[in-house]
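Changelog excerpt

This revision adds worked examples to the README so contributors can see how folded entries look when concatenated. The first example is reproduced verbatim below.
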Amino acid sequence: PSGIPSHYCTSADTSPAALSTCIPAGVTSLDITVSAKSKTTGNIVGKKLFNLTVTNAPPVIAQAGAQVGTVNQGASTITLNIAGTESAPLTYEIVGSGYKVTYKGTVYIVTKNGTQGFSVGALTGRRDNETRDSSSMLIMGFDKPVLSVSASASDNGGNSTFSAYDADNNLLKTVLVTGSTPTTYTISDVGEIAKVIFASTNGWIGNLAYSVNVIPGDINFDRSSDLADAILMLQALSDIELPDLVYPQLTISGTRIGIEDVIINLQQVAGLR
């Protein structure tokens, strides 16, 4: 992967060394072969040739269910996308990029101060025949540990708490939520967080977000940069329908997949970065 052209030549690329690592303006296609080797024997067990059409604006593959920062930020924030029916009771799981939200007790989707969130433990006023559940909670679990979690939350006499746990279900930190006006609460610097729980008999929580370290080349956002990412990017550049979601926000440009992203990924796989 070292020495392979990784960007389009600019006026700054004047030396022979610089010109050997950029793509001349007249180049319209590239042939790249991706090989997979067995960790046990070192033998090549798979190989695929890709012919890429070089353009200044490779296709952007739409993302769903998350708002993701760029690869240059190091730590990026992913925000929970609710998109639910107002005043509807939560009767389903919400699954997004790296997280899953479940619930216990009485939880409704309620907008507060213009933000759609969750009323936990209390009724919306439209379900008069139901009673509160003293053990109501919203649970946000993560596919892989995260660095920090934040949320906007308020309490209406419901003894609301916002707590973080590790993968072994050990309590890392609990924050007491106070006041009826939504306030931002953040849990960080406590180690690896595997899940957070908002528990209340009359509280509200919204704007749930978590922070993770972004690995260069991890285009499918599974927290590892491997050949699966390289193949997805090559398929996108070749205008082949993708079997998985990819995230242009995690590229060098922050908006599109480019050949430079493939090179960075291959350098990660080869241990050069």
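The second example, added in the same revision:
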Amino acid sequence: MTNVYLHLNSLTIFIFCKYYFYYFSTWSFFGLALQGDFEKGFKLIISSIPHSSFEIFVYCLLAAVLFELNQVVRVKIRNKFKKDKEGNSLIKKFLKTIIAYVVFVLPIIIAAAFLDTYIADIILCLFQ
């Protein structure tokens, strides 16, 4: 039973570390851009703020939704080893997670992609 909890927690930590590495590498790139040419690096950072803020928000929202799904999965696994069963439906929670992803997360990811593709270029052109 402890191994199951360890694997689920390891999976959760892996998902969080993946996104933290993404943001760490992004900000490391910004630091390199600032060292190369401060003015151009500053313009690059300012133009990418809208995209970055949307993306950070949506990944936090996704982590919150997946955390609740993780809790239901852990309760289901715990119920396999307990006599007192708790009545959480995994399928209902999974469907709620999919709905939350489609309704909230996916549109914000699309908006962030739009911001990265078009608005960042417009902001960068405003500085020149």
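Reviewer comment on example two: The two ends are 60 Å apart (CA to CA). Residues 1-7 have pLDDT under 50 and may be disordered.
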